[in-house]
Every structure is written in C-alpha cells, then in structure tokens.
Design brief:
The complex is a heterodimer.
Chain A (H helix, E strand, L loop, with lengths): L34 H5 L5 E13 L6 E12 L9 E6 L3 E14 L2 E6 L4 E4 L5 E3 L3 E6 L8 E10 L6 E4 L6 E11 L2 E8 L7 E7 L2 E11 L17 E11 L2 E4 L4 H12 L8 H11 L5 H15 L1 E2 L1 E2 L11 H7 L1 E2 L1 H14 L4 E6 L19 E9 L2 E5 L19 E5 L5 E5 L9 E11 L2 E10 L1 H11 L7 H8 L8 E7 L9 E9 L4 E2 L3 E4 L20 E2 L4 E10 L4 E3 L6 E3 L4 E10 L2 E10 L3 E2 L1 H18 L1 E7 L4
Parallel strand pairs in A: 1-11, 7-18, 17-19, 25-32
Antiparallel strand pairs in A: 1-2, 2-9, 3-8, 4-5, 4-9, 6-8, 10-15, 11-14, 12-15, 13-14, 15-16, 20-21, 20-23, 21-22, 23-24, 25-26, 26-28, 27-28, 29-30, 30-38, 31-37, 32-36, 33-38, 34-35, 35-36
Helix pairs in contact in A: 3-6, 4-6, 5-6
Chain B lengths: L1 H4 L1 H7 L32 E14 L5 E13 L2 H7 L1 E5 L3 E12 L5 E3 L6 E3 L8 E5 L8 E11 L3 E5 L6 E11 L2 E8 L6 E4 L4 E11 L10 H4 L2 E9 L10 H13 L3 H12 L8 H15 L12 H7 L4 H14 L5 E5 L19 E6 L4 E3 L19 E9 L5 E9 L9 E11 L4 E10 L1 H8 L7 H11 L7 E9 L11 E9 L3 E4 L2 E4 L21 E2 L5 E9 L4 E3 L7 E7 L2 E13 L2 E10 L3 E2 L4 H14 L4 E5 L2
Parallel strand pairs in B: 1-10, 20-27
Antiparallel strand pairs in B: 1-2, 2-8, 3-7, 4-5, 4-8, 6-7, 9-14, 10-13, 11-14, 12-13, 15-16, 15-18, 16-17, 18-19, 20-21, 21-23, 22-23, 24-25, 25-33, 26-32, 27-31, 28-33, 29-30, 30-31
Helix pairs in contact in B: 6-8, 6-9, 7-9
Classes of the chains: A alpha+beta, B alpha+beta.
Chain lengths: 651, 652
C-alpha cells in the first residue's frame, strides 16, 4: 500500500522517549542547565535543542538542497544508560556527507567531549515492506550519565529539487529550542506551510541578507507529544513545517517544481505516462477469458477487481524510482505480485483491454494530514489506486491492495481524503472520497438466551457488512476449524471472558459481495448472579469495548477508524418458577455524529433488550469530544443494570 | 559470548589436505524428490512437502575448515494467507564466503513452472544490524501450488550449533546430512523426538551422519509453555580433530582454559584501572554482600552495554568510556570481585525458554549466558543484565543445568578453571510475592467503587518494576498503573499514587510498594432496588485457560509466585449482603501428597465489614502435560474469582 515517498526529513522516532534531534552547547556550561532538573522532574531526558539549517542554491543547472542538522539531548536522571543506543535514519534521497556524535560530560564547570568512534550502517525494513532502501546509522553514546549532553550532527545533500523537507516542533519528550532556517537565493522560490495543532508556538521571520533571503521558524518549550488511544496519527497534532521548491530560474528561464497542484500533477504524470503504452495480448486474453459471459461493464469490472485482489499478492517494495513508477501490467501478471502501483497498473490495463475508461489515481491514507487543495506536495499521498469511470463524472475507486472489500466499499483508510485522478497529459481531477455512512458498516449481533440451572446458554446470530465484514473476514480466512470457537469468542467478545462457544457456522468466506454471517451456540457459566432470594441477570452481554474512558483532560482528538452501525439484541426467556423484577428504563443519546438508544421490551415470558449505537465521524475534538465522553459515560452507566429474577416461592 | 570467540582455533588447526566438496554443485536433481502421501494435511494452508539440510565440512586450499551449506525446501500453499506468508524469502548470508547458488521456482497446480529470474534477487546490506541478506519474492505464485527453492552457500566454519527442525507448519520428507572428513569426529544428538543420526564412513575418508524423517507434525505455541524448547531439534559439535591430535576439542575442560584466558587474565593497564575503581569504594570492614552489591551497582549503573557494540574493549577502555559488551561487563565484574578478594564461581548456562541444558552433552552448545554464583551467600548474580541484582536468579535459568567454574592453579604459569555441571536451584516461591490489600467502599449516589490499595511486590516480581520505573516518564508510569490496577473494562480512574523502593539498586533487597487510590466506574450495577458489586474484578484481570484444546506442551510457569489478597469491604447502610457464601473457593493441585499450587478464598463478616481473603501460589516451575488439567483448574479458579459478585439487598 505504500507508495514511494520522500516525505519528511531523516530521522524517525525510534522509541517513545527518543525523538529525532541537535544545538549550540559547546559554549555553555553545566551550570546553565541546572534549572532543567527542577523544570522537568518527571523526565529522564529532554531535547534541549534541535536545529535544521537549509541552504538552497543552483550550482549548475538545477537546485541543490544542503541540510545541516544538529540535535542535543540532555540526560536528567541517574542510570539512564539505556539512552546510549542511538540510531539515525536516512532515505536514499539524501546523500549523507558527514555524521558525527559525541557526549559532553560535566567536568567541573566545563564539559568534557567524548566522541562516538564507530557508526554502523544498517538497512531498515519499515513495517510490512518486503524491500526498503531506507538506511540508518547506529551508534552508542559513551559515558551516558546524569547531566550529560548527547549531541548528533549530520550534513547531507538533496539533489532532487522535488524532495520536500520538513521540521517538527514537538517530539515524544519535551523540547526547548527548535529552529529551522532556509537560506534562499533570489532565483529560487519556495513554498511552505505549517501543519498540526498548536502552530502558534512557532514564530516566523524573514530577513534579506545581500542577495539572499533567510526564512526562519522558531519555537521553544514545546510539550511532549505522545500518541493517545484512538487518536489520529501524531502528524495531525504536532506542529510542523513543510517546505518545498516552487520554482527556480536560470538566465531568466523559469522552471516550475512544486508550486501548485498543476506542477505536482505534471511531475506525477511523467512517472506513469509511459506505462502500458502498448496493449498487451496476455492481459487481453486473461481479461477476455474471465469476463467472457458478462453483459454489463459493472459485472466485468467487479470480476476484474476480484481477480486482482485474489491473484496478485501484495508485496511492498521501496526501491528508488520504483517508489513512483508502476510496473508494466504484463510484468505484474507474470510475477503475480506487486505493490499498490503494480496492482493499479494491471487493473487499469485489464479495464482498458475491455474498452472501458480507466485511470491511475494518487491518494494519501488517513494517517497523512495533508490535502492536495491545501498544499500539493510529494508528501500529500502515499498510495495509488485504479479508477473506473462508470460515467464521465462518476469515478469508481478500485483499491486492489484490499482483499475483503467488495467493489462498492472504499476502504476506510482512505475515506474522507482527496484523490488525484489522472485524465491525460494536462487534465486531472481532485475527487473527495466520501465517508461511508454508518449503515454500510453493520455489526448486528442478536442472541437469545435461557437459564439452565445456574448457567446461561444461548444462540447468537451476527451479521457484518462493509468495513466490519472486511476486518472479520481477514481473521477467518484460512483458519483451521479447530480454532473457530476461540476466534469467535475473541471477535465478538461478551461481558464475561468465560464465554464458551459450543458450535459455529458461518457464511461463505469467498462471497465478499454478501454480508458475512456467523451463527453460534454458547454458554456463559458464572455470569448469573445468585443470592439467597433472587437471581440477577444483566442482558448487556455486548459491552461495546471501543473507546473506553476518555479522560476529562484529554486534548488529543478522537479518531474513529470507521463509521459504524452496531446493534445488539438480547432476548431472555424468563424460566419457569421465576418472575422478572424491575426492568431498567429505556434511554438514548442523540448527536449527529454519535448516538445510542437502549430499549427494553417485555413480551409474555420474554424480555428483549435492544442497544443501537451509531458512530458517524472520523475525527472529533473539543466540544464534540466532550459530548462523546458524556455519551460513553451514560452508555457505560446503562450497561450496568441487571434485572432481578424473583423466585416465585419468595413472592 | 563464548560462541564466537574461539572459532579461529579450529580454523587454525586444520592441516594440509585440500578436498573437493560433494555438495558444492547441488542442484534441483541431486537427489530424487519423493512424493507426499495424500493423507498429510496442511496447517493454516501450509505443508512443507520436502525439507533438506546439508552441511559439508571440508579443508580449503589454505588448509582451513570451511563448509558448504545447502537448504532445499518445497512448500505447498493452499490458501491466500499461506501464499502471502511464504512467498517472501530472506536468506542470511552473514559469514558466507561465496553464494554458490540461489534458485527458486513456483510449481502451479496445473504443473506450470515459473522460474525466478536471477535479477529478481536483491541484496539487503546489514539488515537490522544482523548481517547481509539476499531476498526475493516468489514469482507466479497462486493458491494450491508449491513454492520450491534451494540455496548453496560456502560459509565460514562453525564447530558447533543448534538446528530446530519443527514449527507450526507440518513437514514431510525431512532430511539432514552432515558430511566431513573422517579425520574429524562429531557428536550429534537429537531432542524432543527428532530421530537419531546414523553414521557411515566411506573408503575415501569421508564420514556422513544422516537422519531422515517421513513426517514431523505441526507444533503450535500454548499458554504457560516454553514453545521453542519443546520443538524437535538437534545439537552438533566437533569432538575430535585428528589432523592435529587425538585429544577432545570443544569440551567443557577446553572452554575452561579459554574462559580463564579471556575473562580472568588482565593486562597491566586493565589491572591498574580495576585497582583504581576498587580503591574508590572504601570497603573498610563492610560485609561481603555489601561489597558485592556496591561493585555490582557501580558496574550496572555506570557502564553501558549498547546493543550495537561489535567489539569488546579492554577493561581500561571500558572504564574510561563507560561502555562495553555483555562479555566485557562479565569480565569487569570478575576482575572487580577478584580484586576485592571475594570468592565466587562463574556459571555459564542457557535460556530454558529456548532449550534446556543437557548435562550429558559435553560441548559448548549450551554455554550462552553468564551467571556468577557466590557459594558463601548461596546467591546468584546476572553480571551483564542491569535489570537484576544479587539474589535474583532470573526465572529462565532456574531449574536448568549450568557449568560452574572456579580458578585452579597448577603453577604460576598454568592456570585454568575447574568445572562441575550442577543444577541452578529453583528460587522458593515465597521469595516472589504479590500482596494486595484493598479497602473498598461503594458510592451509592455515583454507583462507583472507591478503593484504597496497598500493593507489595518482592523478589523477581518486584524487580520487573524496579528495573525500569525510574526511567519511565509520567505517561509511561500511568499506563503501567492503568494496567496493574485495572478494575473492570479499563474504566478506572487513578486519583492518587505513591511508590516506594523504586530504584534498581533496591532489586533483590527491598519490596516494591504501591499505595494507590482509585475509582472503578463499571463495577457497581443497579438491579431493581438491589445493588450488585463486582468484587471479583477488584483484584485485577486474572489469566484464564477456559478454552479446551488438547494440551500438547508441558506446563511452564516462569516466575513462581505467591499471591495474597485481602479485601476489606464496607457494607453501605441500609443494605445486607445476601450471597457471601459464594466467595468461598478452594482449588488445589497436589504433587506427591503436597499442595503444589492452589487458589482459595474465604471471608469474614463483622458488623458492616466484610473481609475477603484470597491465597494463590505456584510452588513448582513446571509440570508434565499429563498434569495440565489439574493446573488448569487452579488457574481458572483465580479467573472464576473475577466473576464473583456481592449482592447488596435493600433492607425492607
């Protein structure tokens, strides 16, 4: 799924406590830092400074970007020897000229400098990638002790003017002085933008120095940013600056780089324009054979899409130019594997072989906070899909990297984002991908239970559609039958973990166009509460475990991975010899973005509880998050209601 | 570790005879491939239909030992997931002198063969600092076919090693061939049901040790088990190199000589640096145990053991730069203890989670990790692990064998270590305690439960917190507490907390103590006019073994612990507890007539106070799988206690 990206500048966060980093420390003394122990009593380490100085120039026929990065961490606790191991990450777009690191150890009123002698270059595989051209330098800081400053400096060069660079003004640990400068000659124009929340901590200045302009952004005393549960990617909240070259001129001739969406599209188009230039007999034969008896285009597209989902295995490779250029459809067919670009390439080729209009399209997954219309950049997207034009203005998005989504279901991880659809050399469209309404992502679980002595037993019937179906199918596919009971108990957990599945039946795993249905027989020993006079049963067997306990002081937005319409119905047959006591009151909470409704109905000897929850948002914060917290708290309160079952003998 | 230090010795010892290898030109058809009977079924869609491992030792043109390694495997992939999980192959080529061949192909269900083009093989340089790899993705793969590949590598010589032969995938047609010049002798031993090797010697001076297994069943991991240690495997070691002498090589007595040289002997600079460190301690008349702790604390708090250091610096450098390797840390500890005149034994052993030390296998295979044993104190120390201190024997060494060594001097020049293979004792379970004292009150307006908690940990259970607590930021600490004191559906608020004895230097010495005030929001239920309190959940979620599948692996408990819980519950005015007898539980597992592990709970009622007492302990490290059912009952008893409720009936 990962499209080749140059994205943000080196150095990823290696661990919760260790951010990318560097400084101006030599002139300082240990005394200058004394105040930090009181200021950060709960931190083992902080970032005292980090700076990135970027110099743009045109030495010959195109711009070069030279970067000087410096970071400095201060150790605030004894025995924090775990800070010694260090690693700096680089993409192959950066030519590293120099890296150095050293410890500054307090020695009376001065610092003693001990250099890192050895750097080991390693290849790094990002999660899920089969091959990656990212690399890193590992090293160990000597003499890590309280009061030590750990300094890293790197100098490197970017020779491709399309590479975007960025600077974060916040990390997992608190940071003090953060700065980026961009020194730009008159014949280069840059484009920049601040993203994230809290951008007001960043101050900007621009000064002219001779024929150069120096842009500077600075922030101090940035708080620590740590990922919260059910939160969007940290890039949504960390204030950060993205900079790229808009255009440059040599001898009065202007060359556009990345000043607008048009520029970005022109660059992207150059990467795909030569792909599948000639019709391939192999692709045509294959497509003809699988769509032979089909009369409508929609039927054909569905068949082609399913064929790609099923037969082209997803293998992600990040390797230089491969990062941008899709593979030829014939090669993908021969290999039977590929990444998102390869899968798009073969899908487009197969559609076109049947005379249908098809396009490549670029899209950013939801973990990226950027949009083309706001700031068109090489970091706006990281994924590619295919598009079938069912009508001239109606694109049908086909993400071949999915395996359990039917054609009509756009995966949740790109919903709400923009996609940039290719329509020829100078023509494209930006399409806002709709967010699926909750009703398309059903989770409908209905159980009927009865009491046998002191044990609850019952039958359940659960229906999944949309995103819920895709997630569930991915767990069930290829499962050994003996594992079914355990997996069912994990997928549809109930209020007690003593949830014993006696038997399971489910619908056809391959038929992704139909809802996925599971029927199960179960027991819940020890769930019933019994006392001298009464039994008590809580019909809320489904505890809606998502989003537990949103703290009152939470500032991080809440993200819903997918919208959802979730219903739980529980029907109890009151056993002979018992009368049902007080039934809990009905309740509800309404908000356009989230709601619940809980109803109890009594029918002869039956008591039916129906809980209906709707999640209809991708991201909420502020007042809406507060309302959501209140809803969850009320829902939680309502789940904690039992029905007394009074033994007739005691009446 | 010891593992890599002395290979050079064997390499130097070969003489003269260059040889031609038998397997260097291995190809698809070197041996016929036998078909797999239809009765064999895949697991998770995967069946390895053929698995051949060949190691051939020979003497190269420079009179050094080298080896040819061949791995040839054929995998039937019957599901989408099976293809995706098996179509990416990574071949480690660290210590490889020459890649002779890498071949791969896919055989479709209809018999169509797709060969892997050479240019599809990629190079990964020093992947995650674990050396170079070659990698490729199988081309043309589809559900129902077979992935087949082999590679032939010319490698640096390895005198001993461990090879695991079992996994989650069932394997058919398994074959291992070990070939070497007859002037060498090897010892190979099979474990966990892997068949024994048979030895043949031919007329041209070549010995072959071989084993064949028609089928190795799938083995899956289970809770409370050391999965890896249960897998079929074999251990091999060279025992004699008759090119140079008829004496044993790679034996325990040999390793003693080497360890003495490498870990006990110091250069002049090293000796001086060590003396200086000891001088600064000002031991005066302090007790031996205090001295040991002081030395250990200094090494573990001052000297860093970075993961990425690939060379052990001299002790004087390590002391100056405050960093070294694990071996370097052990050497430093030994030097400081010797300098302080403290007597001890050096122990080498291996992680029981991976395999257990075979006291009958005289080789270097099990000598992975170091411990230091102090006979006077009867205590162990893990010299290179900053998460432990004197008195804590890490659980994964307990009950296993180790090589115990102490210096022996024949004369001024000839010094070595004497050894004895002994068991590392199991720590008494009462040394690892987890005591939880809870005071509970219901807030009937808010329908919440307020708890005041005093939690005391000792021994290794305390070490698990003391080792990191001070290095974790506020956020991390809160997360840990949310997990430890989670009372129901993660719906718990911690309002106050206080921690005592949280320093690494207190490991093995002082208990780790928490005093916490929390509010549980989901443990009080309305039930008409009555109230139900989910009191069982206040002790935190207990591990369970509710699902029933046939047990395959012996039970391993890792840290054997003694749990004690006391809950003081205040019954609110106007209510009566009407189901207290439910709290009485007693489940025991007996071994040789003694309680081996148990869970029991009882209660006392006095006025408006209900006091619940729970006792749970595990006194033995492991049980055979035949005892699993009894063990399961004890584990599930604690999980069943989680379901206990108190019914507070409204007084009429």
């Amino acid at each position: 799924m990962k499209l080749r990206k140059i994205s943000t500048i080196l150095i990823a966060v290696t661990a919760a406590w260790y951010p990318p980093v560097l400084m101006k420390c030599i002139a300082q003394t240990p005394e200058d830092f004394n105040g930090l122990y009181e200021k950060y009593p709960k931190n083992t380490v902080i970032c005292t400074s980090r700076s990135l100085d970027v110099t743009l120039s045109i030495p010959k026929d195109k711009p070069e970007i030279r970067l000087n990065e410096s970071k400095e961490l201060m150790v605030l606790a004894d025995n924090a020897t775990f800070l010694a191991d260090s690693k700096e990450y680089f993409s192959n777009h950066y030519d590293l000229d120099k890296i150095e690191a050293f410890s500054l150890i307090p020695d009376g009123d001065k610092y003693k400098k001990i250099k890192v002698e050895k750097f080991t270059r390693t290849t790094e595989l990002s999660d899920g990638l089969f091959f990656d051209d990212q690399y890193a330098y590992s090293f160990a800081f000597p003499s890590v002790k309280k009061g030590a400053l750990l300094v890293t400096r790197a100098e490197f060069m970017i020779r491709d003017p399309f590479v975007t660079f960025s600077m974060d003004f916040g990390y997992a640990i608190p940071s003090q002085n953060l700065r980026i400068t961009v020194t730009c000659p008159e014949n280069i124009d840059i484009r920049y933008r601040l993203f994230g929340r809290d951008t007001s901590i960043v101050s900007f200045s621009k000064i002219r120095k001779g024929e150069k302009t120096i842009y500077q952004w600075e922030a101090s005393n940035s708080k620590s940013y740590i990922q919260d549960k059910d939160a969007p990617d940290l890039q949504y909240v960390i204030p950060h600056l993205v900079v790229q070259i808009a255009d440059y001129s040599i001898n009065g001739k202007v060359s556009k780089v990345l000043g607008s969406v048009d520029d970005l599209y022109a660059w992207y188009y150059s990467k795909i324009s030569g792909i599948n230039a000639n019709p391939s007999p192999a692709i045509s034969q294959l497509t003809d054979s699988i769509t032979r008896n089909m009369s409508t285009d929609r039927e054909k597209v569905r068949t082609i899409f399913k064929w790609v989902q099923k037969n082209i295995k997803y293998v992600a490779i990040e390797d230089g130019e491969n990062g941008y250029v899709p593979g030829e459809a014939t090669l993908v067919l021969q290999r039977r594997y590929g990444d998102c670009k390869d899968k798009s390439s073969i899908t487009v080729a197969m559609l076109r072989s049947q005379g249908m209009k098809a396009s490549f399209a670029w899209v950013g997954t939801r973990d990226l906070p950027y949009k083309y219309r706001d700031f068109a950049s090489a970091i706006t997207d990281n994924h590619m899909i295919a598009v079938w034009w069912s009508e001239p203005d109606n694109p049908v998005l086909l993400d071949g990297t999915t395996h359990y989504h039917k054609m009509e279901n756009i995966p949740a991880f790109i919903q709400g984002k923009e996609c940039l659809i290719e329509k020829g050399k100078n023509d494209y469209s930006i399409y806002s991908i709709p967010v699926a309404p909750p009703a398309e992502n059903l989770w409908y679980d209905s159980v009927s239970i009865e009491l046998r002595n002191d044990t609850i037993s019952g039958k359940g019937h659960v229906i999944f559609t949309g995103e819920q179906e895709a997630t569930t199918l991915s767990v069930f596919d290829g499962l050994e039958p003996v594992k079914l009971p355990l997996v069912v108990s994990q997928q549809i957990p109930k209020a007690s973990n003593k949830f014993i599945i006696k038997s399971v039946q489910h619908s056809d795993l391959d038929d992704i166009d139909q809802p996925f249905v599971i029927d199960y027989d179960f027991m819940l020993p020890d769930y019933l509460t019994q006392s001298r006079d009464n039994d008590y049963i809580n019909l809320n067997l489904d505890r809606f475990p998502q989003y537990p306990n949103i703290r009152e002081d939470r500032w991080m937005p809440v993200e819903a991975k997918t919208t959802m319409d979730r219903t739980f119905v529980c029907t109890l047959i009151v056993p002979e010899g018992y009368e049902a006591g007080m039934i809990p009151e009905n309740s509800f909470f309404e908000n356009p973005k989230f709601s619940f409704r809980q109803e109890y109905v009594k029918h002869d000897r039956q008591i039916i509880l129906k809980t209906h929850i709707i999640i209809n948002f991708q991201l909420i914060e502020g007042d809406e998050m507060e309302q959501f917290r209140i809803m969850l708290s009320e829902l939680n309160h309502n789940l904690l209601k039992s029905i007394p079952l009074i033994k007739k003998s005691t009446l | 570790m010891i593992r890599n230090i002395f290979i050079i010795l064997a390499m130097m010892s070969a003489t003269l005879y260059g040889q031609v290898t038998e397997f260097g030109s291995y190809n698809w058809n070197t041996f016929p491939v036998r078909p797999v009977p239809d009765s064999l079924k895949s697991i998770n869609g995967v069946l390895i239909t053929f698995d051949r491992h060949i190691t051939e030792v020979y003497v190269n043109s420079e009179d050094l030992f080298e080896e040819i390694q061949v791995l040839h495997r054929k995998i039937r992939v019957e599901t989408h997931d099976a293809v995706s999980a098996n179509n990416k192959i990574y071949i480690p080529v660290e210590n490889v002198i020459e890649i002779i061949a890498i071949k791969a192909r896919f055989i479709a269900p209809d018999g169509k063969i797709t060969e892997l083009p050479k240019e599809s093989i990629r190079e990964l340089k020093n992947l995650d600092n674990e050396g170079d790899y070659r990698t490729f993705a199988i081309e043309g793969a589809e559900t129902g076919g077979e992935i087949e590949y082999f590679y032939t590598l010319r490698r640096k010589f390895n005198a001993y090693g461990t090879v695991y032969m079992q996994g989650i995938e069932p394997r058919a047609n398994v074959e291992v061939i070990f070939a070497f010049p007859s002037k060498l002798e090897y010892m190979i031993r099979s474990y966990n049901g892997f068949p024994d090797f048979a030895t043949t010697t031919d007329t041209i001076g070549r010995t072959t040790m071989k084993v064949r297994s028609a089928f190795i069943p799938s083995l899956a991991d289970e809770k409370y088990a050391y999965y890896k240690a249960c897998l079929m495997r074999f251990e091999y070691t060279m025992t004699h190199n008759n090119y140079i002498s008829s004496l044993r090589v790679y034996s325990w007595s040999k390793v003693c000589n080497n360890l003495y040289t490498n870990l006990y002997e110091l250069t002049k600079n090293e000796r001086e640096a060590v003396k200086k460190v000891i001088k600064n301690f000002h031991f005066a008349n302090s007790k031996t145990e205090t001295q040991i702790r002081q030395i250990e604390e200094w090494v573990k708090s001052e000297i860093v053991i970075p993961e990425k250091l690939d060379r052990t610096p001299s002790l004087d450098d390590a002391i100056a730069l405050k960093q070294t390797t694990k071996t370097g840390a052990t050497k430093l500890m030994i030097a400081l203890l010797n300098e302080a005149g403290i007597s001890f034994e050096l122990v080498t052993t291996c992680n029981q989670e991976n395999r257990s030390f075979d006291p009958g296998f005289d080789g270097w295979n099990f000598l992975d990790d170091y411990l230091i044993f102090f006979p006077g104190l009867q205590k162990f120390m893990a010299p290179d692990n900053p998460s432990f201190r004197l008195g804590i024997t890490p659980f994964n060494y307990q009950g296993g064998y180790g090589l115990f060594m102490h210096p022996l001097s024949y004369n001024e020049k000839l010094k070595t270590l004497a050894y004895e293979v002994k068991k590392i004792p199991v720590v008494y379970y009462e040394n690892n305690t987890d005591s939880l004292l809870i005071q509970l009150a219901v807030n009937t307006d808010q329908m919440t439960l307020n708890a005041t908690i005093h939690n005391v940990f000792t021994g290794e259970t305390a070490a698990s917190f003391q080792s990191f607590w001070r290095f974790t930021n506020e956020e991390g600490r809160k997360n840990v507490m949310q997990n430890v004191f989670d009372m129901g559906d993660q719906n718990t608020t911690i309002s106050e907390w206080y921690v005592k004895n949280d320093a690494p230097s207190q490991i093995g010495l002082d208990p780790f103590i928490w005093d916490v005030k929390i509010t549980a929001h989901s443990l009080v239920e309305m039930a008409g006019k009555d109230i139900i309190v989910r009191i069982g959940e206040t002790i935190g979620e207990q591990s369970e073994l509710y699902q029933t599948e046939e047990r395959k692996l012996p039970v391993e408990i890792s840290i054997i612990t003694n749990y004690y819980r006391k809950i003081d519950f205040t019954i609110p005015d106007g209510f009566t507890v009407t189901n207290a007898d439910d709290l009485k539980m007693n489940v025991e597992m007996l071994n040789n007539g003694k309680i081996s592990c148990c869970f029991n709970s009882s209660y006392e009622m006095a006025g408006n106070k209900l006091t619940v007492l729970c006792r749970e302990y595990y006194s033995e490290l492991n049980y055979p799988k035949e005892r699993f059912e009894d063990f399961r009952k004890v584990v599930n008893a604690a999980a069943d206690f989680n379901k206990k409720t108190l019914v507070l009936s409204k007084n009429q």
